[in-house]
């Protein structure tokens, strides 16, 4: 019988956030340890799990005929470091952690954590009172994402910072320095994890460069940046300017699929996100592969259509 789990050759980047049952962490970024164990077994069985850096080299230089997987952990949650990494270390499975310096230094928590806390614990009247610009026509999460800025970030910190920092949601510097650098590598996720398109060019440069300089003091740091939020609109041309210097010409996104592509000098990496809220891993992979091929077909169709229209116009004007 044909094995339905034989996936097309390529490099599959999977990413997790927290691995715990800590309910102060937003549910949509949490994976239970049990589920994580099952998924790692699945990935190990169906892919060759490799480190991030060689995966990039393969993509840049070789045509692939095997199925590789890379495991990533974003944001540096305590649960990922305390629960998931010991399990991987025991099995000798490598992974990369994309970290934000202000979380590692226990100076700030992410916007996502503050927003989730507010959404779950505050009445909408209270939210409107504290955030007068919020008018309830959209979710508070999308309002906060749209308004992401240093000013808003500091406002969240003034309101909730002291309370949420006590929860040790993010792994601290000591925990990160203690990681086995033979197995675990570190990557850049900007200092404060803000929505980069809202920042000025110099703010963007600082968010990327300062985190790069800070993480360079850790063993196992590699010059790669995963863009906060990871969507196709979470970066702009200014961001791309710094990808050459601070990310080896690689931009790591989070939009499912395995169709990594090169545009100009930049290699864009897609990643498949996993959490308790996602479908079982084999269904998720199937869905992501189908979506990216439909998307590619749509792009090709649009391109061919434009080409035909342009040719028609040219012919007409030649007549
Ligand atoms: Zn992130």
What can you tell me about this protein's structure?
There is one protein chain. This protein has one domain: Glycoside hydrolase/deacetylase (TIM Barrel). It has helices at 33-46, 52-61, 78-91, 101-104, 111-121, 124-130, 140-146, 150-165, 173-177, 201-215, 237-246, 281-318, and strands at residues 10-16, 18-19, 30-31, 48-49, 67-74, 95-99, 184-188, 221-226, 250-252, 261-263, 266-269, 272-273. The chain is α/β, with parallel strands linked by helices. Helix 5 (111-121) packs antiparallel against helix 7 (140-146), helix 5 (111-121) crosses helix 8 (150-165) and helix 10 packs parallel to helix 11 (237-246). 47% of the residues lie in helices and 15% in strands. The radius of gyration is 21 Å and the shape is globular. The strands form 2 sheets. Strands 1, 4, 5, 6, 7, 8, 9, 10, 11 and 12 form a 10-stranded mixed β-sheet that branches. A two-stranded parallel sheet has the order 2-3. The structure holds zinc ion. Residues 74-75, 189, 193, 228 line the site of zinc ion (ZN).
Summarize the structure.
With 319 residues, this protein is an alpha/beta fold. The chain has helices spanning 33-46, 52-61, 78-91, 101-104, 111-121, 124-130, 140-146, 150-165, 173-177, 201-215, 237-246, 281-318, and strands at residues 10-16, 18-19, 30-31, 48-49, 67-74, 95-99, 184-188, 221-226, 250-252, 261-263, 266-269, 272-273. Strands 1, 4, 5, 6, 7, 8, 9, 10, 11 and 12 form a ten-stranded mixed β-sheet that branches. It has a two-stranded parallel sheet with strand order 2-3.
